[in-house]
User: Which sequence fits this backbone?
């Protein structure tokens, strides 16, 4: 009896996973050119950020180096902000950027601003990782990988989804590709995608707030 009841349940699960995979393939195929474009923008941002980090003057390096040293000291003495405070700050900051992307998407002139937001975010990640690596060598690279890239990788993926959706929606508005009768439905779907992106925001903020400080403390200690 248990095995007989298990078969239909497994078939329903297989059907569900097959449907999800098919929808994902359709979405990736539909937005492949947009994703490729955004990936190129992100790579340019990372490269330019790394280049700028390597061209900093001695005074700027001293200021940033002192700030990093203070962070390391605070981590070693467990004097950083509580996880809940870090989570709230990180989640709010990321949500503000995703909210701006949503706003740009409903604007007919929002596409350049979306591209600019992706570039600037990638630039800051590239700058942070490159500077920490150049300043502290291999240990700086490990610190940057844990302290910066672990969270930012998740958020960049979330940002890509939001940006691709916003670019597509803005393009359809400009080209008047969505009939007026379906505009409300498309807008709700558009907004729903951004609400789903909040999951990526919360996951990234949780890693930054609760996992990264503990890992960095172990590494520095």
Assistant:
């Amino acid at each position: 009896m248990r095995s007989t009841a298990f078969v239909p349940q497994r078939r329903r699960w297989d059907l569900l996973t097959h449907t999800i995979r098919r929808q994902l393939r359709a979405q990736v195929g539909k937005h492949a050119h947009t994703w490729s474009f955004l990936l190129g923008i992100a790579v340019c941002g990372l490269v330019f950020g790394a280049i700028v980090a390597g061209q900093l003057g001695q005074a700027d390096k001293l200021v940033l180096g002192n700030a990093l040293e203070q962070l390391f000291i605070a981590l070693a003495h467990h004097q950083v902000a509580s996880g809940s405070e870090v989570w709230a700050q990180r989640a709010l900051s990321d949500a503000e950027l995703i909210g701006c992307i949503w706003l740009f998407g409903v604007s007919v002139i929002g596409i350049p601003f979306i591209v600019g937001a992706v570039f600037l975010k990638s630039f800051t990640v590239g700058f942070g990782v490159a500077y920490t690596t150049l300043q502290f060598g291999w240990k700086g690279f490990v610190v940057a990988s844990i302290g910066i890239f672990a969270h930012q990788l998740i958020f960049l993926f979330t940002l890509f989804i939001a940006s691709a959706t916003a670019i597509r929606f803005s393009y359809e508005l400009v080209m008047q590709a969505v009939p007026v009768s379906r505009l409300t439905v498309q807008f709700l779907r558009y907004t729903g995608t951004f609400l789903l992106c909040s999951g990526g925001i919360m996951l990234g903020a949780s890693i930054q707030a609760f996992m990264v400080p503990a890992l960095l403390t172990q590494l520095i200690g």
About this structure: Residues 1-7 have pLDDT under 50 and may be disordered. The helical segments are 2-30, 32-54, 58-76, 83-105, 111-175, 180-220. DSSP finds six helices and no strands in the chain. The first helix runs from residue 2 to 30.
